[in-house]
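We were asked to recover a plausible sequence for a given structure. The inputs and outputs are reproduced exactly as logged, with field labels preserved.

PROBLEM: sequence recovery
POSITIONS: 133
GIVEN STRUCTURE:
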């Protein structure tokens, strides 16, 4: 599968390493319809359901990310995902782990809804996620 990356818009491009105000984009953005199923690209364990923004934020607080840790310790993070799974659960490769939230609501219509996907190694470094598709 070749994912469709979010093209350049008022918020920058969705490619890995694209410049951002805070530095550089540490993942890839894959365009997708809100509600689309998200499948795990690795086997491992669900180790975190996190908040990319302050959960009390009235606009962005509803957004979540799912972290699946592979057996070798690599952390795969899927942003803007709702899930019914619980932390600690074993995950199989290809398993549906959640569904895509609409991040566009948190910005504006200029930003396409997308999955932000990032991979972090055991040293805390962000890897180019394209090698894992
Ligand atoms: Zn992103």
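RECOVERED SEQUENCE:
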């Amino acid at each position: 599968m070749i994912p469709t990356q979010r093209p350049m818009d008022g918020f920058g491009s969705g490619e890995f390493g694209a410049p951002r105000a805070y530095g550089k984009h540490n993942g890839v953005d894959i365009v997708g319809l809100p509600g689309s199923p998200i499948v795990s690209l690795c086997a491992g364990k669900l180790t975190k359901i996190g908040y990319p923004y302050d959960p009390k934020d009235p606009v962005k607080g509803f957004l979540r990310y799912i972290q699946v840790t592979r057996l070798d310790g690599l952390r795969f993070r899927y942003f803007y995902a709702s899930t019914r799974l619980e932390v600690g659960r074993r995950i199989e490769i290809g398993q549906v782990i959640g569904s895509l939230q609409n991040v566009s609501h948190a910005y504006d219509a200029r930003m396409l809804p997308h999955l932000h996907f990032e991979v972090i190694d055991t040293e805390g470094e962000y890897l180019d996620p394209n090698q894992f598709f």
